[in-house]
Design a protein that fits this description.
Blueprint (H helix, E strand, L loop, with lengths): L2 H10 L1 H12 L2 H17 L10 H23 L10 H4 L9 H15 L3 H11 L4 H8 L3 H18 L5
């Protein structure tokens, strides 16, 4: 097979390779990157292709193996190896339930300033900090969503002005 035939066959497979790559990655950009990497490997391994064998299967195999190798590499990079005697790092959770005394004091001080606010500012702000969405706050307080957003904004601004020491 000539180099021109080889290149044409590879280029003609682009759509099918992208669809297959998309089924593996579930991400369009990652799929395009995978196809490009497949092209690079196929072109550099042209001499390893045995003529009169299934060219498409060969290209799909390169793509699949590239995906698997990339996946394994990503897993290895995210693996934590704990060489301490008692596996200290693996047994300790990243989030500690221990509250430091100074952060406890700061928390009380911030809550004191929040309590001093008018209810029309305090209630939407507290609901927002508890995880309510703007739309949910607006519905529960029978307000327009823009009003809720502006009240939360003004509350933040007031708190930042009154808590200058914590910035």
């Amino acid at each position: 097979m000539t180099t021109m035939d080889f290149n044409n066959k590879l280029i003609n497979m682009e759509e099918r390779l992208e669809r297959f790559a998309l089924s593996l990655t579930s991400n369009r950009e990652a799929a395009k990157d995978l196809v490009q990497e497949t092209y690079l490997k196929a072109l550099s391994s042209k001499d390893k292709f045995i003529e009169f064998t299934n060219f498409e299967a060969w290209a799909y195999t390169i793509l699949k193996n590239t995906f698997i190798n990339n996946y394994r590499k990503a897993v290895r990079q995210n693996t934590v190896v704990d060489t301490t005697k008692d596996l200290y790092y693996l047994n300790n959770s990243r989030e500690s339930n221990f509250i430091k005394p100074d952060s406890s004091m700061q928390h009380k001080e911030i809550n004191k300033h929040i309590d001093k606010l008018q209810d029309e500012l305090k209630v939407p702000f507290l609901m927002h900090t508890e995880g309510f969405k703007y739309k949910e706050i607006a519905e529960q307080l029978d307000l327009k969503i823009g009003t809720v957003k502006s009240r939360i904004f003004f509350t933040r601004k007031k708190l930042m002005e009154s808590l200058v020491d914590y910035q």
